Amino acid sequence: MTTEIDTVFETALQMRAEQIESLLRRLLDERIRPGEIARPDHLLAAMRHGVLNGGKRLRPFLVLESAALFDADSDAAMRVAAALECLHCYSLIHDDLPAMDDDDLRRGQPTVHKAFDEATAILAGDGLLTYAFDIIADEATPLPGDRRATLVLALARAAGPGGMVGGQALDLDAEKNMPAEDGIIRLQAMKTGALIRFACEAGALVAGASVADRDRLTAFGEAIGLAFQLADDLLDVTADAGTMGKATGKDAAAGKATLVSLHGADWAKRQLGGLVAQAHELLEPFGERALLLKAAASFVASRSH
Amino acid sequence: MTTEIDTVFETALQMRAEQIESLLRRLLDERIRPGEIARPDHLLAAMRHGVLNGGKRLRPFLVLESAALFDADSDAAMRVAAALECLHCYSLIHDDLPAMDDDDLRRGQPTVHKAFDEATAILAGDGLLTYAFDIIADEATPLPGDRRATLVLALARAAGPGGMVGGQALDLDAEKNMPAEDGIIRLQAMKTGALIRFACEAGALVAGASVADRDRLTAFGEAIGLAFQLADDLLDVTADAGTMGKATGKDAAAGKATLVSLHGADWAKRQLGGLVAQAHELLEPFGERALLLKAAASFVASRSH
């Protein structure tokens, strides 16, 4: 069911994606900055290949819209959003490596280690991760220094060993030892949940919002992070069902446990409905300003249909 | 020639190494922190393997001694030094990977991808890089927020595509296309020089020293970074001369151009002498307080003898 707000949302998502794309392009074209020696062209080309690939830019959208709730400085929000996208793309480059998921294609294009080589892909990922913190900490991000430090810290926690990188380590382990339900939940909260949560929290941090507001956005981020993963797992089942004629997908074929494989698709759809309702309720205090963020929650959950 | 100050230096270096080792151990034993989900044990073990390996901890020493010049907060300097060491160790873990230098041993121990596996080594490196920024940005580093942000930025620039990671990319390229002298100088300034420079600059940043003092420490760091690399290249020639009975080493055998291979060992020794004199002169204004840092410059250069 497509309602008016969904159409508005899709237009807004695309507009935001273009804005972010333009900033990312500028940031990744920079060849030298104070305190640096000229960045090698080949490395920059690999970094651009990994980032400028037509992604939906959902995480940046969440940063920008959560920042807009609080009338935060929009230039600052844009830079934080771009930094988060650089970090997200580094994680995809490293995930695709032969030693990890060994993927040759992403969005129909050769992955970075295919288009360049493995060593360059490792370094392009390292470079993007490092640059993400640079972009936030830089005085060009028009925020007081302590707020820039808080954002660096929150991003490092979301992305590090107690967040995304830890989730990736658990995921590798899960291929050998199938985790129980609590293990799956932990893995997903770290691997995909942590960055989505940061994206929502970041808006409050950029604005210097109250702890209560920050907590509200964090809870919203956690709800849609769960919904995102559940929708993904559901998509894995239903998408393949269309092409393979049966209700088993890539994860199931790989013997990978998901909440959908444990509880079934109907349960997952009910859960999704509950998560979206919870996410919407968390944003009630913001009234009409939160319409696009609410639509984002619905969008994230509806990827399975 | 061993003088009294050299003996004092070696004792101080060892004492500092033990202090840093103890802080690193505490930081790498942390299983969960605010905003995180519990870090996977396996990943933490790989991170510890890559860091707690008995290094000399030269870079942390430079941070601590440059901070001491300005009476900077020593807890803050310790945390910045530990962060830098985590970052340095991530770079070694990734450099050792099969797709990069493909080394099985480091300091006589199996490298991380040998002791664990390749995927875990990639993630341990990613985790350490991310954690380095966390450690600095954290309020547990007792500095005003804007100073923490400045330190994050300086470290990101030294470590990123316009610094260490860029140098590593140039180094890979140099194996295929032998660079000319200016290319070698650029490569080395990025690959090893940038972090050593940051180590010296960091003391001034922790202290919030004047721009003039920061510039002085930066110049000192650049001089000893050059000396470090020259001594390394010289060591490659002279160390192998002893065992192989001729004056060609690993780099020469690999067809790798260095300033030593271009200009010869005698030229390199004269250069080293000049760099040490320059480094010492830069520290003159600090008088006796700079004795250990001056000794560090001599130590770095004398690794070739």
From TrEMBL, chains A, B:
Task: Give the UniProt keywords, A-Z.
Answer: Isoprene biosynthesis, Magnesium, Metal-binding, Transferase
Q: Which SUPFAM superfamilies match?
A: Terpenoid synthases
What are its cofactors? Answer: Mg(2+)
Source domain of life: Bacteria
Q: Name one GO molecular function term.
A: metal ion binding
What does UniProt give as GO cellular component?
cytoplasm
**What does the record list as GO biological process?**
terpenoid biosynthetic process
Q: Which Pfam families match?
A: polyprenyl_synt
Q: Which family does it belong to?
A: Belongs to the FPP/GGPP synthase family.
Q: What is this protein called?
A: Probable farnesyl diphosphate synthase
